[in-house]
Amino acid sequence: MRILITGASGLLGLNLALETTRRHTVFGTVNHHSLKTAAFTVIQTDLLAPGAVERLLEQTQPDWVIHCAALANLEACEADPRLAEQLNTSLPRTLASYVARGGARMVHVSTDAVFDGLRGNYSETDAPNPVGVYSSTKLEGEQAVAETYPEAIIARVNLFGWSLSGDRSLAEFFFNHLSQGNRVMGFTDVYFCPLLANHMADILVDMLESNLSGIYHVVCPESLTKYDFGVRLAQRFGLDESLITPTAVSQAGLAARRSPNLTLRVDKLIRSLGNKIPDIAMGLNRFYELYQQGYPASLHSLCSG
After folding, report:
1. Looking at residue 11, which CATH number applies to its domain?
2. Does pTM surpass 0.85?
3. Does residue 121 sit within a domain?
4. Are the C-beta atoms of 195 and 218 separated by less than 8 Å?
5. Is there a domain that residue 11 lies in?
6. Reading across the β-sheet that carries 41-44, which strands appear in turn?
7. Phi, psi of 243 (to 5 degrees)
8. Beta bridge pairs of residue 35
9. What is the pLDDT of residues 10-37, one digit of tens each?
10. Pick from 221, 213, 176, 174: which is nearest to 195 by CA?
11. Number of structural domains in the chain
12. Nearest to 249 by CA among 260, 240, 238, 241
């Protein structure tokens, strides 16, 4: 298959491109972050430029499109709501429209943050209630894709992994600071279901191969607090877990609101694929194995300036 991945320098996009290029022909778009790799075809483009989406699809002729590009930094979204709307809502609408016209299959990557997190244990049929600019624009992006291309997959995700810059995921945050002996905060009142990006890559491809459509929660079947996640990571790497200070999110001084309980159900995904979804231990074990294999350094070597 010919796969087009937008946002190929991002946390999910890069791991997805590297995992899928073993079996497929992969094209990955980047904007500000250049990549030097022979593993897949890198296309530098501003997807918001007039005609960029049409030219990209004409150039790559994809069978599958996995749309990862987004403005995902919560504080950046609050600071520039217009850019957040362009990247998180308008772009998915435009892309879905052209992909539908060309007949390719599509995955639109959304977020668990479309929920307010007041109760948790959300299923795909529960009504979203976003609490900030990022989550509001991502929900509007979901709706735009669903209206424009009903056969598309909308994947609500939460993930961790090794990234190009080395500081894009919560796992890297804990690893980097604890490795240097720095004290860090770990939120005891924020629950989530993080899935390793490399595992998520395999699942997204399985979903496309299974011709799924509609909204799916693509997260770990197990939930825990961000503090507990940090402790478990420290234990897996043999780092000092006592450096993690149990903290309430209200004490952190963050500009953007965080949803406290983003536990999502994955029953629908398990039924549709017939596969077990990797749990936290499996994710952290693979994250550790990748470190042992020099994967973070190999990602950093892809930076071309």
Report:
1. 3.40.50.720
2. yes
3. yes
4. yes
5. yes
6. 41-44, 25-30, 2-6, 64-67, 105-111, 153-157, 214-218
7. -75, -10
8. 303
9. 999 999 999 999 999 999 999 987 899 9
10. 221
11. 1
12. 260
